[in-house]
User: What shape does this take?
Amino acid sequence: MERRLAGEPVGRIMGEREFYGLVFHLNSATLEPRADTELLVDLALGLLPPQGSLLDLGTGTGCIPIAILHTRMDVSGVAIDVSAQALEGARDNAERHGVAARLKLLHGSWFGPLGAPAGQGKFDLVVSNPPYIETAVLAGLSREVREHDPVLALDGGPDGLAPYPILAAGAQEWLRPGGNLLLEIGSTQGEAVALVLRSLGYVEVTVHKDLAGLDRVVSGHHLGDNGHTAV
Assistant: This one.
């Protein structure tokens, strides 16, 4: 009770948080999984083909790829995080939910650990819930977030949009023709992030709203070098 009265979230006190019907261990380098992100998982499950492969960037607890792989036994994936401590937690969560054999965890920044681009692409789906809060706004966040969530997982630069051009451009190098990109966003960033995707040649760019009616995920379809969707 003293910890809660001091502003520590219940999930931090308990050391775990439920997401997509699964319980995920937390550590100090990971955000608490939030219900809003379940929309991204729902969309991913609808886009992945049979025997599909996915890439998750900035995986944190691993909640996004683990929830997907737990639901789709035919899917495999790669998850990357710049924090070694976060990856330790993701590895524990993957083992806990029986998907460790199908989820490769890599340490590094964005696409860097993958090495050279894969030519015609390697993944059917690229997903990310990147930092998207404006730097100047961080000090005004609630005590629960400001004092207990890792700043590295929150700070999206001066306008909150810094990760999105990196993610959208890099995904083009790693998506198979006909693949898709899914990015979680802040509730006021839908049009700005959609513009980034369109400017890079993604088609069928869509802003998806969460259960509260707020912009939450932007999706885009990658046609490939020849400008045509793979059949």
Remarks:
- Residues 84-96 form the longest helix (13 residues).
- The radius of gyration is 17 Å.
